[in-house]
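Students often ask why we bother encoding 3D structure as a string. The short answer is that it lets us treat folding as translation between two languages. Here is a chain of 202 residues written in the first language.
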Amino acid sequence: MDTKLKSDIAESAVVTELLKRGFRVLKPVGDRLPYDLAVDLEGKLLKIQVKSAWLQKGAYTIDTRRTKTNRRHMLRERYKDGDFDFAILYIDDLHVFYVMPASIFSTYKSGISLVEGSTRQRKPKSAEYRERWGLLSEWATQPVTVERLLSNSVEPKATGFQVAKVIPSQAPAALLRFAKQSETAGEGVETKRQVPTALVSG
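And here it is in the second language, the structure alphabet:
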């Protein structure tokens, strides 16, 4: 099976599983973005990168690098911070999914081993993320700080966080309110994402 077909099968399987679990799934047009899918969580987009596993020497392996091809060469490069929020790793032979936060995925330099079945060897850290669909819903409840909301409007200092000037015509009212509160409080103001009631934790 060629790589492109294997990737398409993995992406289709992930979309189907997400829909079964009550998530609202979006798919970008084309393949120019660093993520394959997005999930709409009450208006907030959770970006997902889909990876298909290959069986090698009794273990399934995931390539953690981004692959780009042209007429002559195949280029591989590491993903950047913020490219996506979760990687969903799919084992086609077993129809098994690993739901891994990007912060964990990015700690692997080139590959991730997924060990399935009974084995005497110690299971890798990746085993913690086997079928962890509930992490997607938990992501929606994490606090959002002013630092993140104003990430494009601040100039960080070595001594702390500083709110830069915000042009009213270029920022929503809610953002301006957060910025004003941050200036008076001297630190990031937190708010909570609302948990989508329609989502089912796995």
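Translate back mentally: The first strand starts at residue 24 and ends at 26. Keep this in mind for the problem set.
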